[in-house]
Protein backbone atom coordinates (compact mmCIF):
# COMPACT_ATOMS: atom_id res chain seq x y z
CA UNK A 1 0.00 0.00 0.00
CA UNK A 2 1.27 3.46 -0.85
CA UNK A 3 2.04 5.83 1.99
CA UNK A 4 1.33 9.54 1.92
CA UNK A 5 4.84 10.31 3.13
CA UNK A 6 5.89 10.02 -0.51
CA UNK A 7 3.73 13.05 -1.18
CA UNK A 8 5.24 14.76 1.85
CA UNK A 9 8.71 14.27 0.43
CA UNK A 10 7.70 15.55 -2.99
CA UNK A 11 6.22 18.64 -1.39
CA UNK A 12 9.52 19.37 0.30
CA UNK A 13 11.65 18.58 -2.73
CA UNK A 14 9.56 20.75 -5.01
CA UNK A 15 9.61 23.80 -2.77
CA UNK A 16 13.16 22.94 -1.74
CA UNK A 17 12.47 23.72 1.90
CA UNK A 18 9.66 23.96 4.39
CA UNK A 19 8.05 27.20 5.52
CA UNK A 20 8.36 27.91 9.22
CA UNK A 21 4.72 27.17 9.93
CA UNK A 22 1.73 25.50 8.38
CA UNK A 23 -0.27 28.42 7.04
CA UNK A 24 -2.82 26.70 4.83
CA UNK A 25 -4.42 24.30 7.28
CA UNK A 26 -5.79 21.28 5.52
CA UNK A 27 -3.13 20.13 3.05
CA UNK A 28 -2.26 16.50 3.64
CA UNK A 29 1.42 17.11 4.32
CA UNK A 30 1.16 20.56 5.87
CA UNK A 31 3.20 21.90 2.94
CA UNK A 32 2.01 24.72 0.68
CA UNK A 33 0.16 23.49 -2.41
CA UNK A 34 2.26 22.97 -5.51
CA UNK A 35 1.75 24.86 -8.76
CA UNK A 36 1.74 22.63 -11.84
CA UNK A 37 2.27 24.27 -15.22
CA UNK A 38 -0.56 22.67 -17.20
CA UNK A 39 1.00 21.69 -20.54
CA UNK A 40 3.50 24.40 -19.63
CA UNK A 41 2.40 28.02 -19.47
CA UNK A 42 -0.22 27.22 -22.09
CA UNK A 43 -2.08 30.46 -21.48
CA UNK A 44 0.87 32.26 -23.08
CA UNK A 45 2.54 29.87 -25.52
CA UNK A 46 1.38 26.95 -27.67
CA UNK A 47 0.94 24.03 -25.29
CA UNK A 48 3.40 21.18 -24.86
CA UNK A 49 6.40 23.04 -26.25
CA UNK A 50 9.73 23.57 -24.53
CA UNK A 51 9.01 27.29 -24.68
CA UNK A 52 5.75 26.80 -22.77
CA UNK A 53 7.42 24.60 -20.16
CA UNK A 54 10.33 26.98 -19.66
CA UNK A 55 8.01 29.95 -19.28
CA UNK A 56 5.96 28.06 -16.70
CA UNK A 57 9.11 27.47 -14.68
CA UNK A 58 10.08 31.13 -14.93
CA UNK A 59 6.59 32.03 -13.68
CA UNK A 60 7.04 29.95 -10.55
CA UNK A 61 5.69 26.51 -11.43
CA UNK A 62 6.97 23.70 -9.24
CA UNK A 63 6.10 21.02 -11.79
CA UNK A 64 5.60 20.97 -15.54
CA UNK A 65 3.05 18.62 -17.09
CA UNK A 66 3.70 16.76 -20.35
CA UNK A 67 0.85 14.64 -21.72
CA UNK A 68 2.51 11.62 -23.30
CA UNK A 69 1.74 9.76 -26.51
CA UNK A 70 3.86 7.34 -28.52
CA UNK A 71 5.47 7.58 -31.94
CA UNK A 72 5.57 4.77 -34.49
CA UNK A 73 9.07 3.89 -33.30
CA UNK A 74 8.13 3.83 -29.62
CA UNK A 75 9.33 7.22 -28.38
CA UNK A 76 7.21 9.17 -25.90
CA UNK A 77 6.47 12.74 -26.97
CA UNK A 78 4.45 15.56 -25.43
CA UNK A 79 1.07 16.17 -27.06
CA UNK A 80 -2.37 16.64 -25.53
CA UNK A 81 -3.69 13.93 -27.85
CA UNK A 82 -2.22 11.42 -30.25
CA UNK A 83 -4.25 13.27 -32.90
CA UNK A 84 -1.90 15.93 -34.27
CA UNK A 85 -4.66 17.59 -36.28
CA UNK A 86 -8.36 16.74 -36.54
CA UNK A 87 -10.87 17.33 -39.29
CA UNK A 88 -14.55 18.04 -38.72
CA UNK A 89 -17.21 15.87 -40.36
CA UNK A 90 -17.42 18.34 -43.26
CA UNK A 91 -13.67 18.13 -43.86
CA UNK A 92 -12.79 21.51 -42.36
CA UNK A 93 -10.05 21.85 -39.78
CA UNK A 94 -11.08 21.45 -36.15
CA UNK A 95 -9.85 24.65 -34.51
CA UNK A 96 -10.10 23.41 -30.93
CA UNK A 97 -8.21 20.12 -31.23
CA UNK A 98 -5.40 20.77 -33.70
CA UNK A 99 -1.96 21.36 -32.20
CA UNK A 100 0.46 21.04 -35.14
CA UNK A 101 0.82 22.15 -38.75
CA UNK A 102 0.72 18.59 -40.12
CA UNK A 103 -2.41 19.41 -42.13
CA UNK A 104 -0.29 21.80 -44.23
CA UNK A 105 2.40 19.23 -45.03
CA UNK A 106 1.76 17.74 -48.45
CA UNK A 107 4.32 15.00 -47.88
CA UNK A 108 2.13 13.67 -45.07
CA UNK A 109 -1.25 13.99 -46.80
CA UNK A 110 -1.47 10.21 -47.14
CA UNK A 111 -1.20 9.79 -43.36
CA UNK A 112 -4.67 11.23 -42.89
CA UNK A 113 -6.92 8.46 -41.64
CA UNK A 114 -9.92 7.69 -39.46
CA UNK A 115 -9.50 5.84 -36.18
CA UNK A 116 -11.61 5.00 -33.16
CA UNK A 117 -9.87 6.28 -30.02
CA UNK A 118 -11.56 5.42 -26.73
CA UNK A 119 -14.84 4.89 -28.54
CA UNK A 120 -14.69 8.14 -30.53
CA UNK A 121 -14.27 8.16 -34.31
CA UNK A 122 -11.63 10.71 -35.30
CA UNK A 123 -10.34 11.72 -38.73
CA UNK A 124 -6.91 13.30 -38.81
CA UNK A 125 -3.21 12.60 -38.37
CA UNK A 126 -1.85 10.55 -35.45
CA UNK A 127 1.50 10.34 -33.68
CA UNK A 128 1.64 6.54 -33.90
CA UNK A 129 1.78 6.79 -37.70
CA UNK A 130 4.93 8.95 -37.63
CA UNK A 131 8.49 8.18 -36.63
CA UNK A 132 10.15 10.59 -34.23
CA UNK A 133 12.27 11.94 -37.08
CA UNK A 134 9.13 12.72 -39.06
CA UNK A 135 7.38 14.31 -36.09
CA UNK A 136 10.39 16.53 -35.53
CA UNK A 137 9.76 18.18 -38.89
CA UNK A 138 6.34 19.41 -37.69
CA UNK A 139 5.74 22.59 -35.71
CA UNK A 140 3.32 23.36 -32.92
CA UNK A 141 0.44 25.80 -33.29
CA UNK A 142 -1.98 27.29 -30.78
CA UNK A 143 -4.71 24.71 -30.13
CA UNK A 144 -7.49 27.15 -29.19
CA UNK A 145 -6.81 30.25 -31.30
CA UNK A 146 -10.35 31.53 -30.88
CA UNK A 147 -9.75 31.95 -27.15
CA UNK A 148 -6.03 32.72 -27.26
CA UNK A 149 -5.39 34.63 -30.48
CA UNK A 150 -2.33 36.28 -28.92
CA UNK A 151 -0.60 32.91 -28.85
CA UNK A 152 -0.82 32.48 -32.62
CA UNK A 153 2.17 34.80 -32.99
CA UNK A 154 4.22 31.80 -31.83
CA UNK A 155 2.72 29.36 -34.34
CA UNK A 156 5.19 27.20 -36.28
CA UNK A 157 8.15 28.25 -34.12
CA UNK A 158 8.48 25.22 -31.83
CA UNK A 159 9.04 21.51 -32.39
CA UNK A 160 7.32 18.64 -30.61
CA UNK A 161 9.45 17.72 -27.58
CA UNK A 162 10.23 14.22 -26.40
CA UNK A 163 9.81 13.22 -22.77
CA UNK A 164 13.60 13.15 -22.47
CA UNK A 165 13.83 16.74 -23.69
CA UNK A 166 11.26 17.80 -21.10
CA UNK A 167 13.29 16.06 -18.38
CA UNK A 168 16.49 17.68 -19.62
CA UNK A 169 14.81 21.08 -19.41
CA UNK A 170 13.54 20.45 -15.88
CA UNK A 171 16.99 19.38 -14.72
CA UNK A 172 18.75 22.29 -16.41
CA UNK A 173 16.31 24.80 -14.94
CA UNK A 174 16.61 23.20 -11.51
CA UNK A 175 20.37 23.72 -11.62
CA UNK A 176 20.08 27.26 -12.96
CA UNK A 177 17.44 28.41 -10.47
CA UNK A 178 18.58 26.50 -7.41
CA UNK A 179 15.19 24.87 -6.86
CA UNK A 180 13.86 21.50 -7.90
CA UNK A 181 11.52 21.46 -10.90
CA UNK A 182 9.44 18.31 -11.10
CA UNK A 183 7.71 16.61 -14.00
CA UNK A 184 4.09 15.44 -13.98
CA UNK A 185 3.54 13.21 -17.05
CA UNK A 186 0.14 11.85 -18.04
CA UNK A 187 -0.21 8.61 -19.97
CA UNK A 188 -2.77 9.33 -22.70
CA UNK A 189 -5.06 6.56 -23.99
CA UNK A 190 -3.03 3.69 -22.50
CA UNK A 191 -5.62 1.02 -23.42
CA UNK A 192 -5.58 2.20 -27.04
CA UNK A 193 -1.79 2.23 -27.23
CA UNK A 194 -1.69 -1.26 -25.70
CA UNK A 195 -4.06 -2.43 -28.42
CA UNK A 196 -1.68 -1.35 -31.19
CA UNK A 197 1.44 -2.80 -29.59
CA UNK A 198 2.84 0.44 -28.17
CA UNK A 199 2.48 -0.16 -24.44
CA UNK A 200 3.49 3.08 -22.74
CA UNK A 201 4.16 1.96 -19.18
CA UNK A 202 7.41 0.12 -19.83
CA UNK A 203 8.76 2.87 -22.07
CA UNK A 204 7.92 5.53 -19.49
CA UNK A 205 9.48 3.68 -16.58
CA UNK A 206 12.61 2.98 -18.62
CA UNK A 207 13.06 6.70 -19.33
CA UNK A 208 12.41 7.64 -15.71
CA UNK A 209 14.85 5.03 -14.41
CA UNK A 210 17.54 6.21 -16.83
CA UNK A 211 17.18 9.68 -15.36
CA UNK A 212 17.37 8.57 -11.74
CA UNK A 213 13.63 8.90 -11.06
CA UNK A 214 13.10 5.63 -9.23
CA UNK A 215 11.11 6.19 -6.04
CA UNK A 216 8.81 8.54 -4.15
CA UNK A 217 11.64 10.93 -3.34
CA UNK A 218 11.90 11.75 -7.06
CA UNK A 219 10.17 14.95 -8.19
CA UNK A 220 7.74 13.00 -10.38
CA UNK A 221 4.05 12.24 -10.44
CA UNK A 222 2.56 9.94 -13.11
CA UNK A 223 -1.13 10.52 -13.76
CA UNK A 224 -3.80 8.70 -15.74
CA UNK A 225 -7.55 8.72 -16.27
CA UNK A 226 -7.42 4.92 -16.49
CA UNK A 227 -7.02 2.56 -13.56
CA UNK A 228 -5.41 -0.64 -14.83
CA UNK A 229 -2.34 1.10 -16.21
CA UNK A 230 -1.74 2.84 -12.88
CA UNK A 231 -1.95 -0.56 -11.20
CA UNK A 232 0.57 -1.85 -13.73
CA UNK A 233 2.81 1.16 -13.04
CA UNK A 234 2.54 0.46 -9.31
CA UNK A 235 4.29 -2.84 -10.00
CA UNK A 236 6.92 -1.28 -12.26
CA UNK A 237 8.01 1.83 -10.36
CA UNK A 238 8.04 3.45 -6.94
CA UNK A 239 7.54 7.03 -8.16
CA UNK A 240 4.30 8.68 -7.08
CA UNK A 241 1.10 7.91 -8.98
CA UNK A 242 -2.09 9.95 -9.29
CA UNK A 243 -5.55 8.76 -10.31
CA UNK A 244 -7.29 11.36 -12.44
CA UNK A 245 -11.00 11.84 -11.77
CA UNK A 246 -13.42 13.27 -14.33
CA UNK A 247 -16.78 14.73 -13.26
CA UNK A 248 -18.65 12.33 -15.56
CA UNK A 249 -18.25 9.05 -17.34
CA UNK A 250 -15.93 6.21 -16.41
CA UNK A 251 -12.35 5.14 -17.10
CA UNK A 252 -12.01 3.74 -20.60
CA UNK A 253 -10.38 0.56 -19.34
CA UNK A 254 -13.55 0.02 -17.29
CA UNK A 255 -15.56 0.32 -20.51
CA UNK A 256 -13.37 -2.28 -22.22
CA UNK A 257 -13.36 -4.63 -19.21
CA UNK A 258 -17.09 -4.33 -18.52
CA UNK A 259 -16.63 -2.66 -15.14
CA UNK A 260 -19.82 -0.62 -14.54
CA UNK A 261 -18.29 1.79 -12.05
CA UNK A 262 -18.21 5.51 -12.81
CA UNK A 263 -15.57 8.05 -11.85
CA UNK A 264 -17.92 9.19 -9.09
CA UNK A 265 -17.78 5.69 -7.61
CA UNK A 266 -14.02 6.10 -7.26
CA UNK A 267 -14.40 9.09 -4.92
CA UNK A 268 -16.65 7.43 -2.37
CA UNK A 269 -14.84 6.42 0.84
CA UNK A 270 -14.67 2.85 -0.48
CA UNK A 271 -13.38 3.98 -3.86
CA UNK A 272 -10.76 6.26 -2.32
CA UNK A 273 -9.58 3.43 -0.09
CA UNK A 274 -9.04 1.30 -3.20
CA UNK A 275 -7.12 4.09 -4.95
CA UNK A 276 -4.84 4.31 -1.93
CA UNK A 277 -3.70 0.73 -2.59
CA UNK A 278 -2.07 1.67 -5.90
CA UNK A 279 -1.69 5.48 -6.01
CA UNK A 280 -0.56 8.37 -3.86
CA UNK A 281 -3.31 10.79 -4.76
CA UNK A 282 -6.12 11.93 -6.98
CA UNK A 283 -6.20 14.59 -9.66
CA UNK A 284 -9.76 15.84 -9.45
CA UNK A 285 -11.73 18.06 -11.77
CA UNK A 286 -12.18 21.25 -9.78
CA UNK A 287 -15.99 21.06 -10.06
CA UNK A 288 -15.85 17.99 -7.84
CA UNK A 289 -14.18 20.11 -5.15
CA UNK A 290 -16.23 23.29 -5.44
CA UNK A 291 -19.24 22.72 -7.69
CA UNK A 292 -21.12 25.37 -9.65
CA UNK A 293 -24.83 26.05 -9.68
CA UNK A 294 -27.02 26.14 -12.79
CA UNK A 295 -25.88 29.72 -13.47
CA UNK A 296 -22.20 28.83 -13.19
CA UNK A 297 -21.63 30.40 -9.78
CA UNK A 298 -19.38 28.69 -7.25
CA UNK A 299 -21.16 26.88 -4.44
CA UNK A 300 -19.76 25.59 -1.14
CA UNK A 301 -16.96 23.01 -1.19
CA UNK A 302 -17.77 19.31 -1.12
CA UNK A 303 -16.09 16.92 1.30
CA UNK A 304 -13.83 15.43 -1.39
CA UNK A 305 -10.58 16.99 -0.17
CA UNK A 306 -11.21 15.90 3.41
CA UNK A 307 -12.35 12.44 2.29
CA UNK A 308 -9.25 11.93 0.15
CA UNK A 309 -6.96 13.16 2.92
CA UNK A 310 -8.65 10.75 5.32
CA UNK A 311 -7.67 7.96 2.92
CA UNK A 312 -4.07 9.21 2.89
CA UNK A 313 -4.34 10.65 -0.61
CA UNK A 314 -3.14 14.02 -1.84
CA UNK A 315 -5.50 16.09 -4.00
CA UNK A 316 -4.44 18.06 -7.08
CA UNK A 317 -7.19 20.05 -8.82
CA UNK A 318 -7.54 20.73 -12.56
CA UNK A 319 -7.65 22.97 -14.55
CA UNK A 320 -7.35 26.69 -13.76
CA UNK A 321 -7.37 29.28 -16.52
CA UNK A 322 -7.57 33.07 -16.37
CA UNK A 323 -9.94 33.68 -19.28
CA UNK A 324 -13.54 34.55 -18.41
CA UNK A 325 -14.88 31.75 -20.61
CA UNK A 326 -13.43 29.30 -18.09
CA UNK A 327 -14.18 31.22 -14.87
CA UNK A 328 -17.26 30.89 -12.64
CA UNK A 329 -19.99 33.37 -13.48
CA UNK A 330 -19.59 35.19 -10.18
CA UNK A 331 -15.82 35.54 -10.62
CA UNK A 332 -15.60 36.97 -14.12
CA UNK A 333 -12.47 39.08 -14.41
CA UNK A 334 -11.22 37.80 -11.07
CA UNK A 335 -9.29 34.54 -11.50
CA UNK A 336 -7.33 35.35 -8.34
CA UNK A 337 -10.42 34.79 -6.21
CA UNK A 338 -11.01 31.39 -7.75
CA UNK A 339 -7.47 30.30 -6.89
CA UNK A 340 -7.89 31.64 -3.36
CA UNK A 341 -11.11 29.77 -2.70
CA UNK A 342 -9.64 26.50 -3.97
CA UNK A 343 -6.39 26.91 -2.05
CA UNK A 344 -8.45 27.39 1.08
CA UNK A 345 -10.07 23.96 0.69
CA UNK A 346 -6.75 22.34 1.56
CA UNK A 347 -5.88 21.03 -1.91
CA UNK A 348 -2.28 19.90 -2.22
CA UNK A 349 -1.72 21.45 -5.62
CA UNK A 350 -3.37 22.59 -8.82
CA UNK A 351 -2.89 22.57 -12.57
CA UNK A 352 -2.85 25.98 -14.20
CA UNK A 353 -2.51 27.34 -17.73
CA UNK A 354 -1.44 30.59 -16.03
CA UNK A 355 1.14 29.56 -13.44
CA UNK A 356 2.08 33.19 -12.77
CA UNK A 357 -1.41 33.83 -11.40
CA UNK A 358 -1.38 30.58 -9.42
CA UNK A 359 2.01 31.45 -7.95
CA UNK A 360 1.06 35.04 -7.11
CA UNK A 361 -2.09 34.04 -5.25
CA UNK A 362 -0.30 31.28 -3.37
CA UNK A 363 2.33 33.80 -2.33
CA UNK A 364 -0.35 35.93 -0.68
CA UNK A 365 -1.59 32.97 1.36
CA UNK A 366 1.62 31.28 2.44
CA UNK A 367 5.17 32.52 3.05
CA UNK A 368 7.71 31.69 0.41
CA UNK A 369 9.92 28.84 1.62
CA UNK A 370 12.77 29.52 4.00
CA UNK A 371 15.85 27.44 4.62
CA UNK A 372 14.87 24.90 7.26
CA UNK A 373 15.18 21.72 5.18
CA UNK A 374 17.41 21.17 2.21
CA UNK A 375 17.19 18.52 -0.45
CA UNK A 376 19.74 16.38 1.36
CA UNK A 377 17.08 15.51 3.93
CA UNK A 378 14.69 14.10 1.35
CA UNK A 379 16.39 10.78 0.50
CA UNK A 380 16.65 9.91 4.19
CA UNK A 381 12.94 10.41 4.75
CA UNK A 382 12.21 8.52 1.55
CA UNK A 383 14.08 5.51 2.93
CA UNK A 384 12.25 5.72 6.25
CA UNK A 385 8.78 5.93 4.75
CA UNK A 386 8.91 3.76 1.64
CA UNK A 387 5.50 2.47 0.70
CA UNK A 388 4.64 -1.21 0.77
CA UNK A 389 3.14 -2.87 -2.31
UniProtKB/TrEMBL annotation:
<comment type="similarity">
    <text>Belongs to the glycerophosphoryl diester phosphodiesterase family.</text>
</comment>
<protein>
    <recommendedName>
        <fullName>glycerophosphodiester phosphodiesterase</fullName>
        <ecNumber>3.1.4.46</ecNumber>
    </recommendedName>
</protein>
<dbReference type="InterPro" id="IPR030395">
    <property type="entry name" value="GP_PDE_dom"/>
</dbReference>
<dbReference type="Pfam" id="PF03009">
    <property type="entry name" value="GDPD"/>
</dbReference>
<dbReference type="InterPro" id="IPR013424">
    <property type="entry name" value="Ice-binding_C"/>
</dbReference>
<feature type="domain" description="GP-PDE">
    <location>
        <begin position="33"/>
        <end position="362"/>
    </location>
</feature>
<keyword id="KW-0319">Glycerol metabolism</keyword>
<keyword id="KW-0732">Signal</keyword>
<keyword id="KW-0378">Hydrolase</keyword>
<dbReference type="InterPro" id="IPR017946">
    <property type="entry name" value="PLC-like_Pdiesterase_TIM-brl"/>
</dbReference>
